[in-house]
TrEMBL record, chains A, B:
Span of domain Bacterial bifunctional deaminase-reductase C-terminal: 4-189
InterPro entries in alphabetical order: DHFR-like_dom_sf (IPR024072), RibDG_C (IPR002734), Riboflavin_Biosynth_HTPR (IPR050765)
Superkingdom per UniProt: Bacteria
Stated name of the protein: Dihydrofolate reductase family protein
Length: 218, 218
Protein backbone atom coordinates (compact mmCIF):
# COMPACT_ATOMS: atom_id res chain seq x y z
CA UNK A 1 0.00 0.00 0.00
CA UNK A 2 1.19 3.48 -0.86
CA UNK A 3 2.78 5.29 2.09
CA UNK A 4 3.45 8.95 2.80
CA UNK A 5 7.08 9.60 3.59
CA UNK A 6 9.24 12.44 4.82
CA UNK A 7 13.03 12.70 4.95
CA UNK A 8 14.69 15.75 6.45
CA UNK A 9 18.09 16.82 7.70
CA UNK A 10 17.93 18.65 11.00
CA UNK A 11 20.39 19.96 13.55
CA UNK A 12 20.75 18.56 17.06
CA UNK A 13 18.61 21.44 18.29
CA UNK A 14 15.88 20.55 15.80
CA UNK A 15 16.26 23.19 13.10
CA UNK A 16 15.45 22.09 9.56
CA UNK A 17 16.34 25.39 7.91
CA UNK A 18 19.39 27.60 7.96
CA UNK A 19 19.67 31.35 8.32
CA UNK A 20 23.08 32.45 7.02
CA UNK A 21 22.18 32.83 3.34
CA UNK A 22 23.53 35.86 1.47
CA UNK A 23 23.14 36.94 -2.18
CA UNK A 24 26.71 35.72 -2.80
CA UNK A 25 26.16 32.45 -0.90
CA UNK A 26 22.48 31.59 -1.54
CA UNK A 27 22.50 28.36 0.49
CA UNK A 28 24.81 29.61 3.25
CA UNK A 29 27.56 27.70 5.02
CA UNK A 30 25.16 26.18 7.55
CA UNK A 31 23.21 24.36 4.85
CA UNK A 32 26.37 22.58 3.81
CA UNK A 33 27.08 21.58 7.41
CA UNK A 34 23.50 20.42 7.94
CA UNK A 35 23.50 18.21 4.86
CA UNK A 36 27.19 17.23 4.77
CA UNK A 37 26.71 13.54 5.57
CA UNK A 38 23.92 13.18 2.99
CA UNK A 39 25.78 15.14 0.30
CA UNK A 40 28.85 12.93 0.81
CA UNK A 41 26.98 9.73 -0.03
CA UNK A 42 27.44 7.88 -3.29
CA UNK A 43 23.67 7.96 -3.81
CA UNK A 44 23.50 11.75 -3.56
CA UNK A 45 26.48 12.16 -5.86
CA UNK A 46 24.96 9.87 -8.47
CA UNK A 47 21.37 10.94 -8.22
CA UNK A 48 21.65 14.66 -7.59
CA UNK A 49 25.07 15.60 -8.99
CA UNK A 50 25.04 13.06 -11.86
CA UNK A 51 28.50 11.93 -10.75
CA UNK A 52 29.01 8.48 -12.24
CA UNK A 53 32.51 8.02 -10.84
CA UNK A 54 31.21 5.80 -8.05
CA UNK A 55 32.77 8.04 -5.43
CA UNK A 56 31.01 8.87 -2.19
CA UNK A 57 30.35 7.13 1.13
CA UNK A 58 28.63 3.75 1.14
CA UNK A 59 27.88 3.14 4.82
CA UNK A 60 24.95 3.96 7.09
CA UNK A 61 24.33 7.42 5.63
CA UNK A 62 24.21 6.02 2.08
CA UNK A 63 21.70 3.36 3.11
CA UNK A 64 19.26 6.06 4.20
CA UNK A 65 20.07 8.17 1.13
CA UNK A 66 19.28 5.26 -1.18
CA UNK A 67 16.04 4.63 0.67
CA UNK A 68 15.19 8.28 0.03
CA UNK A 69 14.72 7.57 -3.67
CA UNK A 70 13.27 4.05 -3.52
CA UNK A 71 9.61 3.36 -4.36
CA UNK A 72 8.63 7.02 -4.59
CA UNK A 73 5.87 7.53 -7.15
CA UNK A 74 5.20 11.22 -6.63
CA UNK A 75 6.60 14.11 -4.65
CA UNK A 76 5.02 17.12 -2.93
CA UNK A 77 7.03 20.19 -2.07
CA UNK A 78 6.45 23.73 -0.90
CA UNK A 79 7.01 26.78 -3.08
CA UNK A 80 10.13 27.63 -1.08
CA UNK A 81 11.79 24.29 -1.76
CA UNK A 82 11.14 24.75 -5.47
CA UNK A 83 12.67 28.20 -5.17
CA UNK A 84 9.69 30.35 -6.04
CA UNK A 85 10.29 32.65 -3.08
CA UNK A 86 13.86 33.29 -4.14
CA UNK A 87 12.85 33.83 -7.78
CA UNK A 88 9.38 35.42 -7.70
CA UNK A 89 9.78 37.37 -10.92
CA UNK A 90 11.33 34.74 -13.17
CA UNK A 91 8.64 32.96 -15.22
CA UNK A 92 11.33 30.68 -16.65
CA UNK A 93 12.47 29.42 -13.25
CA UNK A 94 12.56 25.61 -13.27
CA UNK A 95 13.73 24.90 -9.71
CA UNK A 96 17.10 24.40 -8.08
CA UNK A 97 17.93 21.03 -9.65
CA UNK A 98 18.94 21.75 -13.21
CA UNK A 99 17.51 20.21 -16.37
CA UNK A 100 17.51 16.63 -15.04
CA UNK A 101 16.12 16.89 -11.52
CA UNK A 102 16.69 13.90 -9.22
CA UNK A 103 13.00 13.08 -8.69
CA UNK A 104 12.10 11.25 -11.94
CA UNK A 105 8.40 11.30 -10.90
CA UNK A 106 5.54 13.82 -10.92
CA UNK A 107 6.30 16.63 -8.47
CA UNK A 108 3.49 18.79 -7.07
CA UNK A 109 4.58 22.24 -5.93
CA UNK A 110 2.22 23.95 -3.48
CA UNK A 111 1.76 27.60 -4.36
CA UNK A 112 -0.93 30.26 -4.44
CA UNK A 113 0.27 31.46 -7.86
CA UNK A 114 -0.83 29.45 -10.90
CA UNK A 115 1.99 28.43 -13.25
CA UNK A 116 2.19 26.20 -16.28
CA UNK A 117 3.43 22.66 -15.72
CA UNK A 118 7.10 21.97 -16.54
CA UNK A 119 8.28 18.79 -18.18
CA UNK A 120 11.92 18.14 -17.35
CA UNK A 121 14.37 15.44 -18.42
CA UNK A 122 14.39 12.03 -16.76
CA UNK A 123 10.66 11.79 -16.06
CA UNK A 124 10.38 14.68 -13.64
CA UNK A 125 7.36 16.93 -14.16
CA UNK A 126 6.56 19.93 -12.00
CA UNK A 127 2.88 20.76 -11.53
CA UNK A 128 1.69 23.68 -9.45
CA UNK A 129 -1.19 23.24 -7.01
CA UNK A 130 -3.18 25.46 -4.72
CA UNK A 131 -4.46 22.87 -2.26
CA UNK A 132 -4.71 21.80 1.36
CA UNK A 133 -2.32 19.05 2.48
CA UNK A 134 -5.16 16.50 2.20
CA UNK A 135 -6.08 17.62 -1.33
CA UNK A 136 -2.48 17.66 -2.45
CA UNK A 137 -2.00 14.18 -1.06
CA UNK A 138 -5.04 12.87 -2.92
CA UNK A 139 -3.70 14.31 -6.18
CA UNK A 140 -0.20 13.01 -5.60
CA UNK A 141 -1.40 9.56 -4.57
CA UNK A 142 -3.42 9.27 -7.77
CA UNK A 143 -0.34 10.24 -9.78
CA UNK A 144 2.00 7.90 -7.89
CA UNK A 145 0.70 4.76 -9.58
CA UNK A 146 0.81 2.73 -6.38
CA UNK A 147 4.18 4.10 -5.33
CA UNK A 148 4.82 6.10 -2.18
CA UNK A 149 4.32 9.84 -1.94
CA UNK A 150 7.16 11.81 -0.47
CA UNK A 151 6.64 15.20 1.12
CA UNK A 152 10.03 16.61 0.29
CA UNK A 153 10.06 19.91 2.14
CA UNK A 154 10.70 22.51 3.16
CA UNK A 155 10.32 22.36 6.87
CA UNK A 156 7.06 24.35 7.04
CA UNK A 157 5.39 22.17 4.43
CA UNK A 158 6.54 19.02 6.22
CA UNK A 159 5.21 20.33 9.52
CA UNK A 160 1.81 21.00 7.93
CA UNK A 161 1.61 17.35 6.87
CA UNK A 162 2.92 16.03 10.20
CA UNK A 163 0.45 18.10 12.20
CA UNK A 164 -2.38 16.92 9.97
CA UNK A 165 -1.40 13.34 10.82
CA UNK A 166 -0.76 12.48 7.16
CA UNK A 167 2.79 11.07 7.38
CA UNK A 168 3.39 7.30 7.69
CA UNK A 169 7.19 7.25 7.63
CA UNK A 170 9.41 10.01 8.95
CA UNK A 171 13.18 9.87 8.65
CA UNK A 172 15.39 12.60 10.08
CA UNK A 173 19.15 12.75 9.73
CA UNK A 174 20.35 14.66 12.80
CA UNK A 175 23.64 16.49 12.24
CA UNK A 176 25.68 17.02 15.42
CA UNK A 177 25.62 20.80 15.22
CA UNK A 178 23.73 23.49 17.13
CA UNK A 179 22.22 26.07 14.75
CA UNK A 180 20.32 28.07 17.36
CA UNK A 181 17.82 29.59 14.94
CA UNK A 182 15.57 28.78 12.00
CA UNK A 183 12.38 26.73 11.63
CA UNK A 184 12.06 24.02 14.27
CA UNK A 185 10.80 20.70 12.93
CA UNK A 186 9.39 19.40 16.21
CA UNK A 187 7.26 22.31 17.45
CA UNK A 188 3.65 21.43 18.27
CA UNK A 189 4.21 17.72 17.71
CA UNK A 190 4.07 16.46 21.31
CA UNK A 191 3.45 12.69 21.36
CA UNK A 192 4.31 12.19 17.67
CA UNK A 193 5.91 8.87 18.62
CA UNK A 194 2.59 7.37 19.78
CA UNK A 195 1.51 4.59 17.44
CA UNK A 196 4.85 4.52 15.63
CA UNK A 197 7.84 2.25 15.75
CA UNK A 198 10.87 4.43 16.41
CA UNK A 199 14.45 3.51 15.53
CA UNK A 200 17.73 5.36 16.01
CA UNK A 201 21.03 4.58 14.29
CA UNK A 202 24.19 6.67 14.43
CA UNK A 203 26.61 6.79 11.51
CA UNK A 204 30.39 7.22 11.72
CA UNK A 205 29.83 10.69 10.22
CA UNK A 206 28.26 11.73 13.54
CA UNK A 207 24.81 11.92 11.98
CA UNK A 208 22.05 10.01 13.75
CA UNK A 209 19.18 8.63 11.69
CA UNK A 210 15.86 8.48 13.55
CA UNK A 211 12.78 6.95 11.95
CA UNK A 212 9.13 6.96 12.96
CA UNK A 213 7.14 4.26 11.20
CA UNK A 214 3.41 4.17 11.67
CA UNK A 215 1.70 0.80 11.62
CA UNK A 216 -0.59 0.15 8.70
CA UNK A 217 -4.13 1.08 9.61
CA UNK A 218 -3.32 3.21 12.66
CA UNK B 1 43.59 17.43 34.88
CA UNK B 2 40.19 17.94 36.47
CA UNK B 3 37.38 18.35 33.94
CA UNK B 4 33.91 19.84 34.17
CA UNK B 5 31.24 17.39 33.06
CA UNK B 6 27.53 17.38 32.36
CA UNK B 7 25.20 14.44 31.74
CA UNK B 8 21.56 15.01 30.91
CA UNK B 9 18.61 13.11 29.49
CA UNK B 10 16.70 15.06 26.87
CA UNK B 11 13.88 14.41 24.44
CA UNK B 12 14.31 14.37 20.68
CA UNK B 13 12.95 17.91 20.63
CA UNK B 14 15.56 19.02 23.17
CA UNK B 15 13.59 19.29 26.38
CA UNK B 16 15.48 18.43 29.56
CA UNK B 17 12.53 18.91 31.90
CA UNK B 18 9.01 17.52 32.00
CA UNK B 19 5.73 19.27 32.65
CA UNK B 20 3.16 16.68 33.69
CA UNK B 21 3.91 16.59 37.43
CA UNK B 22 0.97 16.51 39.84
CA UNK B 23 0.87 16.36 43.65
CA UNK B 24 -0.01 12.65 43.38
CA UNK B 25 2.67 12.00 40.75
CA UNK B 26 5.51 14.40 41.67
CA UNK B 27 7.83 13.31 38.83
CA UNK B 28 5.10 12.80 36.22
CA UNK B 29 4.88 10.07 33.59
CA UNK B 30 7.06 11.96 31.14
CA UNK B 31 10.06 11.92 33.49
CA UNK B 32 9.92 8.14 33.52
CA UNK B 33 9.80 8.02 29.72
CA UNK B 34 12.64 10.54 29.43
CA UNK B 35 14.92 8.58 31.76
CA UNK B 36 13.69 5.03 31.03
CA UNK B 37 16.86 3.80 29.33
CA UNK B 38 19.09 5.20 32.09
CA UNK B 39 16.86 3.93 34.90
CA UNK B 40 16.90 0.44 33.35
CA UNK B 41 20.69 0.14 33.55
CA UNK B 42 22.44 -2.08 36.05
CA UNK B 43 24.54 0.91 37.14
CA UNK B 44 21.49 3.03 37.97
CA UNK B 45 19.85 0.16 39.84
CA UNK B 46 22.96 -0.45 41.92
CA UNK B 47 24.04 3.09 42.50
CA UNK B 48 20.74 4.92 42.88
CA UNK B 49 18.29 2.20 43.96
CA UNK B 50 20.82 0.15 46.00
CA UNK B 51 19.67 -2.93 44.11
CA UNK B 52 22.46 -5.50 44.50
CA UNK B 53 20.66 -8.22 42.53
CA UNK B 54 22.80 -7.52 39.45
CA UNK B 55 19.71 -6.94 37.35
CA UNK B 56 19.51 -4.19 34.77
CA UNK B 57 20.78 -3.60 31.24
CA UNK B 58 24.52 -3.89 30.56
CA UNK B 59 24.89 -2.57 27.01
CA UNK B 60 25.46 0.87 25.51
CA UNK B 61 23.19 2.70 27.94
CA UNK B 62 24.94 1.13 30.94
CA UNK B 63 28.36 2.12 29.64
CA UNK B 64 27.32 5.79 29.69
CA UNK B 65 25.60 5.34 33.06
CA UNK B 66 28.78 3.90 34.58
CA UNK B 67 30.82 6.74 33.14
CA UNK B 68 28.39 9.08 34.86
CA UNK B 69 29.78 8.12 38.25
CA UNK B 70 33.47 7.59 37.36
CA UNK B 71 36.18 10.02 38.51
CA UNK B 72 33.74 12.60 39.88
CA UNK B 73 35.24 14.41 42.87
CA UNK B 74 32.51 16.95 43.48
CA UNK B 75 29.05 17.80 42.19
CA UNK B 76 27.20 21.07 41.62
CA UNK B 77 23.42 21.21 41.34
CA UNK B 78 20.67 23.78 41.28
CA UNK B 79 18.19 24.25 44.10
CA UNK B 80 15.45 22.67 41.97
CA UNK B 81 17.39 19.44 41.45
CA UNK B 82 17.94 19.19 45.20
CA UNK B 83 14.21 19.73 45.66
CA UNK B 84 14.23 23.04 47.51
CA UNK B 85 11.58 24.52 45.23
CA UNK B 86 9.25 21.61 45.87
CA UNK B 87 9.88 21.69 49.64
CA UNK B 88 10.47 25.35 50.50
CA UNK B 89 9.14 25.14 54.06
CA UNK B 90 10.76 21.92 55.23
CA UNK B 91 14.00 22.66 57.13
CA UNK B 92 14.62 18.90 57.43
CA UNK B 93 14.52 18.30 53.67
CA UNK B 94 17.62 16.31 52.64
CA UNK B 95 17.05 15.96 48.88
CA UNK B 96 15.36 13.38 46.68
CA UNK B 97 17.90 10.58 47.14
CA UNK B 98 17.27 9.17 50.62
CA UNK B 99 19.81 8.71 53.40
CA UNK B 100 22.54 7.29 51.15
CA UNK B 101 22.55 9.50 48.05
CA UNK B 102 24.36 8.16 44.97
CA UNK B 103 26.97 10.92 44.79
CA UNK B 104 29.48 9.85 47.49
CA UNK B 105 31.31 13.19 47.10
CA UNK B 106 30.82 16.80 48.24
CA UNK B 107 27.72 18.26 46.55
CA UNK B 108 27.29 22.03 46.24
CA UNK B 109 23.69 23.19 45.93
CA UNK B 110 23.23 26.65 44.42
CA UNK B 111 20.61 28.64 46.33
CA UNK B 112 19.95 32.13 47.55
CA UNK B 113 18.78 30.84 50.94
CA UNK B 114 21.49 29.89 53.45
CA UNK B 115 21.14 26.42 54.95
CA UNK B 116 23.32 24.31 57.21
CA UNK B 117 25.44 21.66 55.51
CA UNK B 118 24.12 18.08 55.57
CA UNK B 119 26.33 15.07 56.07
CA UNK B 120 24.74 11.98 54.56
CA UNK B 121 25.76 8.33 54.48
CA UNK B 122 28.31 7.05 51.97
CA UNK B 123 30.46 10.18 51.79
CA UNK B 124 27.86 12.52 50.31
CA UNK B 125 27.75 15.98 51.87
CA UNK B 126 25.40 18.75 50.76
CA UNK B 127 26.67 22.30 51.10
CA UNK B 128 24.62 25.33 50.09
CA UNK B 129 26.21 28.12 48.11
CA UNK B 130 25.15 31.52 46.84
CA UNK B 131 27.61 31.93 43.97
CA UNK B 132 28.09 32.58 40.27
CA UNK B 133 28.85 29.54 38.10
CA UNK B 134 32.55 30.52 38.09
CA UNK B 135 32.68 30.87 41.88
CA UNK B 136 30.81 27.62 42.43
CA UNK B 137 33.21 25.87 40.08
CA UNK B 138 36.24 27.20 41.95
CA UNK B 139 34.80 25.93 45.23
CA UNK B 140 33.84 22.54 43.81
CA UNK B 141 37.20 22.09 42.06
CA UNK B 142 39.02 22.73 45.32
CA UNK B 143 36.83 20.14 47.04
CA UNK B 144 37.18 17.56 44.24
CA UNK B 145 40.73 16.59 45.18
CA UNK B 146 41.86 16.36 41.58
CA UNK B 147 38.70 14.57 40.46
CA UNK B 148 36.24 15.91 37.92
CA UNK B 149 33.41 18.27 38.79
CA UNK B 150 30.00 17.34 37.52
CA UNK B 151 27.26 19.89 37.00
CA UNK B 152 24.36 17.57 37.69
CA UNK B 153 21.36 19.70 36.81
CA UNK B 154 18.72 20.78 36.47
CA UNK B 155 18.48 22.04 32.96
CA UNK B 156 18.63 25.75 33.82
CA UNK B 157 21.73 25.32 35.94
CA UNK B 158 23.42 23.28 33.21
CA UNK B 159 22.58 25.95 30.64
CA UNK B 160 24.15 28.64 32.86
CA UNK B 161 27.41 26.66 32.90
CA UNK B 162 27.27 25.85 29.17
CA UNK B 163 26.63 29.46 28.20
CA UNK B 164 29.53 30.58 30.42
CA UNK B 165 31.79 28.19 28.48
CA UNK B 166 32.68 26.24 31.61
CA UNK B 167 31.84 22.69 30.48
CA UNK B 168 34.55 20.39 29.07
CA UNK B 169 32.50 17.22 28.56
CA UNK B 170 28.81 17.15 27.73
CA UNK B 171 26.88 13.91 27.40
CA UNK B 172 23.21 13.85 26.47
CA UNK B 173 21.06 10.77 26.28
CA UNK B 174 18.37 11.56 23.71
CA UNK B 175 15.14 9.64 24.25
CA UNK B 176 13.08 9.10 21.06
CA UNK B 177 10.05 11.01 22.30
CA UNK B 178 8.60 14.44 21.52
CA UNK B 179 7.67 16.30 24.71
CA UNK B 180 6.69 19.59 23.08
CA UNK B 181 7.21 21.75 26.18
CA UNK B 182 9.56 22.36 29.09
CA UNK B 183 13.04 23.85 29.35
CA UNK B 184 15.06 23.48 26.14
CA UNK B 185 18.67 22.48 26.69
CA UNK B 186 20.02 23.88 23.43
CA UNK B 187 18.63 27.42 23.37
CA UNK B 188 21.22 30.18 22.88
CA UNK B 189 24.05 27.70 22.30
CA UNK B 190 24.61 28.17 18.55
CA UNK B 191 28.03 26.81 17.57
CA UNK B 192 28.52 24.83 20.80
CA UNK B 193 30.21 22.11 18.75
CA UNK B 194 33.12 24.38 17.74
CA UNK B 195 36.34 23.23 19.36
CA UNK B 196 34.83 19.97 20.54
CA UNK B 197 35.02 16.40 19.37
CA UNK B 198 31.46 15.20 18.88
CA UNK B 199 30.35 11.56 18.93
CA UNK B 200 26.95 9.92 18.50
CA UNK B 201 26.03 6.36 19.44
CA UNK B 202 22.56 4.84 19.40
CA UNK B 203 21.56 2.12 21.84
CA UNK B 204 19.08 -0.70 21.20
CA UNK B 205 16.75 1.08 23.64
CA UNK B 206 16.28 3.81 21.03
CA UNK B 207 18.26 6.31 23.08
CA UNK B 208 21.09 8.10 21.28
CA UNK B 209 24.12 9.20 23.27
CA UNK B 210 25.80 12.34 21.98
CA UNK B 211 29.00 13.66 23.53
CA UNK B 212 30.87 16.94 23.11
CA UNK B 213 34.45 16.73 24.36
CA UNK B 214 36.50 19.90 24.43
CA UNK B 215 40.23 19.60 23.81
CA UNK B 216 42.47 20.35 26.77
CA UNK B 217 43.52 23.98 26.66
CA UNK B 218 40.85 25.16 24.20
Amino acid sequence: MSRVRVDLNISLDGFATTTDQTPENPFGDDWGRLTAAYAATRTFRQRVLHDESGEGTTGVDDRYAARYFEDVGAEIMGAGMFGLHANPNDPEWCGWWGEDPPFHVPVFVLTHEPRHPLEMAGGTTFQFLTATPEEALDTATAAAGGGDVRVGGGASTVRDFLRAGLVDDLHVGIAPIILGRGVRLWDDLRGLEAGSQVTAESAPSGTTHVTFRRSVGS
